[in-house]
Amino acid sequence: MSRQRASWVLPASLLMALLLGLVPLPPTLQALRPYWLALVVAYWVIEAPERAGLGFAFCIGLLADITFAGVFGEQALRLVVMAFILQRFRARLRFFPLSQQALAIGGLLLNDRIVTAAIHVAIGVPQLAAAAWLAPVIGMLLWPLVFLLLDALRLGNWRRR
């Protein structure tokens, strides 16, 4: 049974992740915003390595830096570090149950916060709020939903025949 791969899913998922990152939130919830772009890039690096690698992560990171008007190159570096680690452990990670994948993604998101803190210290930018360290937990809890949604869209399982 051949499945028609939907080529629109990759750009649409990235656009949605960028838009979710732009949605205004109250200041108390802003720090808890999951790193949507990291979740989407992680999915594509794990499930479609022929389409998403280090160059992909770098370009998407630069686009995010421009979109969010942050420090130019910060998100590019963060996403490249995450993509590198994912590529290194992809073969094992693909066969983990979703609950274990979520723990691994949570660890990567925590690593992302550490990389962000290091970048902010290096360039003298104010540090993240203490509540921002909870965002990786929210991302970890959202991973199964993000994975299943993108997998269904990518494989065309959402259509009835």
From TrEMBL:
<dbReference type="InterPro" id="IPR026034">
    <property type="entry name" value="MreD_proteobac"/>
</dbReference>
<comment type="function">
    <text>Involved in formation of the rod shape of the cell. May also contribute to regulation of formation of penicillin-binding proteins.</text>
</comment>
<dbReference type="GO" id="GO:0005886">
    <property type="term" value="C:plasma membrane"/>
</dbReference>
<keyword id="KW-1003">Cell membrane</keyword>
<feature type="transmembrane region" description="Helical">
    <location>
        <begin position="131"/>
        <end position="153"/>
    </location>
</feature>
<dbReference type="InterPro" id="IPR007227">
    <property type="entry name" value="Cell_shape_determining_MreD"/>
</dbReference>
<feature type="transmembrane region" description="Helical">
    <location>
        <begin position="102"/>
        <end position="125"/>
    </location>
</feature>
<keyword id="KW-0472">Membrane</keyword>
<dbReference type="GO" id="GO:0008360">
    <property type="term" value="P:regulation of cell shape"/>
</dbReference>
<dbReference type="Pfam" id="PF04093">
    <property type="entry name" value="MreD"/>
</dbReference>
<keyword id="KW-0133">Cell shape</keyword>
<feature type="transmembrane region" description="Helical">
    <location>
        <begin position="55"/>
        <end position="81"/>
    </location>
</feature>
<keyword id="KW-0812">Transmembrane</keyword>
<protein>
    <recommendedName>
        <fullName>Rod shape-determining protein MreD</fullName>
    </recommendedName>
</protein>
<keyword id="KW-0997">Cell inner membrane</keyword>
<keyword id="KW-1133">Transmembrane helix</keyword>
<comment type="similarity">
    <text>Belongs to the MreD family.</text>
</comment>
